[in-house]
Amino acid sequence: MEDNELSEDDFEGLREKAEKVLSSKEIEQPEDLEEMSQEEIHQFLHELQVHQIELELQKEELLEAQSKLEKARSRYYELFDLAPVGYCRLSKEGKIKEVNLAAASYLEKSREELMEKEISQYILPEDQDTYYHFRKDLFDTGSPQECELRMQKAGGEIFWVQLKAEIIQGKEDRPAVFLTIEDITERVKEKIKRRKRTKELKGLYFTSKLVQNRDKTIDEILSLLSRKISDFFKYPEKTCVRISFAGEEYLSENFQETSCILKSDIMVEGVKEGSIEVFALDRERQDGQALFLTEERDLIQDISRALSSEFSRRASEEELKLTQFSVDKAPVGVFWITPEGKFEYVNDRACEILSYSKDELVGMEVPDIDPNFQAENHDQEWQKIKEKKYDKLETQLIRKNGEKFPAEVINRYLQYKDKEYELAFVLDITERKEKERQLRDNKNLLQSLANTTPGSVYQLKLLPDGSFCFPYATEDIYEIYEVTPEEVKKDAGKVFDRLHPEDYERVADSIKKSAENLTVWEEEYRVKLPEKGIRWLHGYAEPEKRPDGSIIWHGNIRDITERKKRERKLQEQKEEIEELNDSLNANIEKARMMHRQFLPDHLPEVNNLSFSTYYEPADRLGGDFYYMIEFEDEILFYISDVSGHDLSSSMLNIFLKDAINSYLFHSQETEKKKKLSPAHIIQHVNERFKEENFLADYFICLLMGTIDKKSFEVNLSNAGIQFPPFLIQRQGSVSSIPCSGMPVTVVNENFIYKNCSYNLKPGDTLVMSTDGLFEQADSRNNMYGEERHLQILIENADLKPEEMVHKIYGDFAEFKGDELLQDDLTSLLIQREFA
């Protein structure tokens, strides 16, 4: 039966009450109805009806009260049974009479299982004493009590609760206990954690106060902190610290690196700049737990975070200072302009541009420096920049001395700390304007040059899609490809169609390689033009890669058809010349062999006389020569140096030998007993030379002599040999024999050659050489020269001619090194031996 329905006993009770009302004095009942008057009967019925209405009203009030009671019971159920904290109603003995869902959930039991169970059986044994005193105080005092203790769930888990209890009246007026159970496990854990972290909190407080001290530098902070961190550790008891920051290290006094380490990074603006490292000097904790507590790990992380935050803030401040410094020292003028048009801030460059001091500029207005700015238009201009946020213009500003100059002004609208500003950047563009003028002039000049440059100046562009076009080309491109600039501006197809089929692939490959390697493109190729036919072109261009991936070549193309024709003709001539050169080389080789054959194959063998020679041509065909002819009483000898090192030199030496032989033949026929005169022979050679009509630049240098076999008298005559003969005397002295004369040439008409005489004494040596020995240069361009030659002669005066020649040219080779031989070498030595 529902609680809001009336039982039969309830109806019976109501009936009895109604009968009592009827029998009460409130309604007087007549003893005899028959004796009642009609009026009395009506009065009696009226009172009955009134009582009936009163009963009905009472019934309605009773039903309404019963409805409110049911609603109250429902709210009580919601408050008690669905409350977020545990509620229990206990008997005085501590048994559970009623329990809500939260309390049952705490204990991991159903409400049915908890009914009539003593609450104490769920309290931890260690806290039973606390619960006992809690109940005792409750009943002794009658006042609400509370306590904190541990309870155990059905699964064995222990948790902390706060119990609150007060005495209520139970059924049959027996006292009961209303108990509140609240799970405070997390709160207790946090409280325990705070108690354990006393040292750590001190460490955090110390760190916080330290980093907030702006008088301390970063170096001082880290140095002090490295010595204090160990004081904030509980376990391990012995630690040491190393702080690394920005390349520096800060060590505690007892620092000793171990393998047991606790580390946390120091970050500055998101970038790792250092770290804190705590090393355990105890190898393990005495209680066998982990070496570093979680709280201590948190401490190091908190300290590193505090340092990171402070150092980042300091870095930001430095950046702000740097930013302000950068603005002050910016290469452009900076103006902060108020809505009224006044300058609130100017930087150093602004003062420099306008030749004002900061104090003078601050407070001035825009029209003071910009004569083009109309003050009455200020509001309109301000609204314009406020709406656009950005504006750029060129104007003329005026300096303090009245000088005007062109300037570029960039205006920006901004708000800072609830204030409006126009931020103006001013750049003196005097130099830029001058450069722009120069660029215009240069552009006009380049256009003029392009118009006068042979061929066509052009730009060829390779687009990312692989297509080609000519963004720019002079009008002369028509003379090159028979296309107009407009025809190839967007598509270069017509140009490529003009390429000769035999050259197309080569040209395309060269363009591709130039694009891949960004190397200069240069080619000579043929084109087939509709009107001109086949033409030769030379193209040159330098590539440039653009940000969009395209490549553009800047270059020139010109028609080289006529040059190619000339080159073809020259090639034909070259081939002819090569044939002639081959023939000439063959003749030169023959001449060289003849030249060698003309040299004596042996030297005279004369009593008391020794001879030695040295000959080395600089080219295949040399210009030097030497010869010796032995007669009955004397010996004729000479060295020569003729012009050239080719066939002409060989021809001159042949002429020389023939002229001397003709003279000797003639003298033998006419003057059989007369001694030979070197001067007469040279005179004869000179006369013959003029008769042969040699060219004016042909010449013969000749040193000729005779030596008597018995008297050892030497006669010498010189025709242009530059360096005189040297005489090495037996006592070791060296001297030159004065003997000079003009070379044999066509212009040498009236010169008379003479002889000079000298008697060779025993041990004397006569040394004769052409100029190739003396004029050779080494790697430093120093000449061998007479002085060095004389020194070698002195050092080797007592040697035989052959040995002396070896010494002379051994020293020469050492002097010359790897340098090329510059001229022919010829030497002739004659020595009179001791009898």
UniProtKB/TrEMBL annotation:
Coiled-coil intervals: 45-75, 560-594
Biological-process GO terms, alphabetical: regulation of DNA-templated transcription
Residue ranges occupied by any PAS domain in the UniProt entry: 72-142, 327-363, 472-518
SUPFAM superfamilies in UniProt: PYP-like sensor domain (PAS domain)
Keywords: Coiled coil, Hydrolase
PANTHER family assigned to the protein according to its UniProt record, in alphabetical order: STAGE II SPORULATION PROTEIN E, STAGE II SPORULATION PROTEIN E-RELATED
Protein name stated in the entry: PAS domain S-box-containing protein
